[in-house]
Amino acid sequence: MRIHGKVVVIAVCFGVFLLLYFLGGNAADDPLLKEVVEEEEEEDGNSSPSPPVLGRDVAAKFAKKPPVGVVARAEEVLKRRKEGPAINRGASENAKSKPRSRVARPVAKRTRAEEVMHLAVVACGNRLDETLAMVKSAVLFSLKRITFHIFAEDPLAPQFEERLNQWPRSISAKFQYSIYPITFSVGNADEWKKLFKPCAAQRLFLPVILKDVDSLLYVDTDVLFLRPMDDIWSLLKSFNSTQLAAMAPEHEVPKIGWYSRFARHPFYGVTGVNSGVMLMNLTRIRSTMFKNSMIPSGLSWEDLLHPLYQKYKNHITWGDQDLLNIIFHYNPECLFIFPCQWNYRPDHCMYGSNCKGAEEEGVSILHGNRGVYHDDKQPAFKVVYDAIRDFPFEDNMFQSLFYPIQTKFLDTVNTLCGRIPQVFLKQIEKTMRKVFEEKVVRHVRPHK
To answer: What is the mean predicted confidence (pLDDT) over 350-375?
Structure first.
């Protein structure tokens, strides 16, 4: 009897042991709890597998409620499964360096098309070298790309092409050019060509010819840029809703002004305007009806030019510039006036300095009218022209351009224009320093 009881006790104990072993094995194989345990081990930073603890798994299985931490972990895992596949934490080394993210990456912004400036010039006769010096000055100092529209007589066209194609590739990459024949859309072409200087009247027809160009800077061949063209180009943004062109006054002092003393036709303002540097919104010019003294309803730009010339041709001295003064006399709201340093001429210094803007900021655009680049009447102008014309493109600007100008200016101090060298040198020194910093210092300076 005693032996029978011992057998029963041993059998019961063995059964209990089997039951516990069975339940413990199922708990270990439970996928939910198994995943939670693996996550806990990973988050603890322990990459090596920890030895199984049977008692902990069994206690959790037999309790009425599993531990709170396990419930929270299990709910989180279930939530992740609903949202999508979990990140593979055991990914390869390459994948580990670029973890996936559910946050949408911002779409890269499209780069804006580079703005191109347009510059027009009209060259006839012996103006080849003078025009190339102007183009050279614009390219040397400007920041944005430039498209040159060169209107030239037939014999000059191949010469322009040949000379421009000889420039270094580093320079030619900054601009492009087109060469056009001299043409006039209305009236007698021979009459237009003989108006004032040869071919100068061509500028009046730019809005008609360059129909695909929105805005344009026109300059005479005897103009030199002493600062980036970008700066005068930016004045287009200063136009109000009615303004469509910009020029500088012909004179600063009315008592010495030509228009205020001698003109026999209407002109703009008190002293008239000079058309050697003219900034134009061609789109606005083409769409505007201009008031005039001939037709009350107004005329378009193209329809206005020939009747205006016919009416005033016996009263105008400065040709196309006089016609522009007449147009803006009747349409003053269409004109933006920029200061004299943007069109600095011998008139601003040969009777004494009378351009305050140039005294304060320096000359921005030098206009050597009266032929002063080619004689000794105003040596201060000639010094600047010779230096830019002869500058080797790839030389250092300070050594081969600025310092020669500065040195040669010492020979001009006995003239009225030469005795104010800071007017000529201030802006060009500032511009060269800026170009030097842009091209050299910025690239040499180490990245932080």
So the answer is: 95
Q: What average pLDDT is seen over the chain?
A: 80
Mean pLDDT confidence for 40-44: 43
3-state SS of the chain is CHHHHHHHHHHHHHHHHHHHHHHHHHHHHCHHHHHHHHHHHHHCCCCCCCCCCHHHHHHHHHCCCCCHHHHHHHHHHHHHHHHCCCCCCCCCHHHHHCCCCCCCCCCCCCCCCCCCEEEEEEECCCCHHHHHHHHHHHHHHCCCCEEEEEEECCCCHHHHHHHHCCCCHHHHCCEEEEEECCCCCCCCHHHHHCCCCCCHHHHHHHHHHCCCCCEEEEECCCEEECCCHHHHHHHHHHCCCCCCEEEEECCCCHHHCHHHHHCCCCCCCCCCEEEEEEEEEHHHHHHCCECCCCCCCCECHHHHHHHHHHHHCCCCCCCHHHHHHHHHHHCHHHEEECCHHHCECHHHCECECCCHHHHHHCCCEEECCCCCCCCCCCHHHHHHHHHHHHCCCCCCHHHHHHHHHHHHHHHHCCCCCCCCHHHHHHHHHHHHHHHHHHHHHHHHCCCC
Query: In 3D, which of 367, 347, 393 has the Cα closest to residue 166?
Result: 393
Structural contact between residues 36 and 74, judged by C-beta atoms closer than 8 angstroms = yes
Residue 280 phi, psi dihedral angles, 5° rounding: -135, 135
The dihedrals phi and psi of 325, each to the nearest 5 degrees, come to: -65, -40
Return the closest-CA partner of residue 221 out of 202, 193, 235: 202
Which among 68-72, 109-113, 119-123 has the top mean pLDDT? 119-123
Q: Which pTM value belongs to this model? A: 0.73
Q: Which of 233, 216, 335, 225 is nearest to 274 (CA)?
A: 335
Whether 55 shows a pLDDT value over 60: the answer reads: no
Quick: pLDDT tens for 321-351.
Answer: 999 999 999 999 999 999 999 999 999 999 8
Q: For the CA atoms of the chain, what is the radius of gyration?
A: 41
- For 398, the token pair is 């300070």
| pLDDT confidence of residue 12 | 61
The answer to whether 379 touches 411, Cβ cutoff 8 Å, is: yes
Amino acid at 83: E
63/156 Cα distance (integer angstroms) = 103
User: Which residues on neighbouring strands pair with residue 365, listed in sequence order?
Assistant: 225
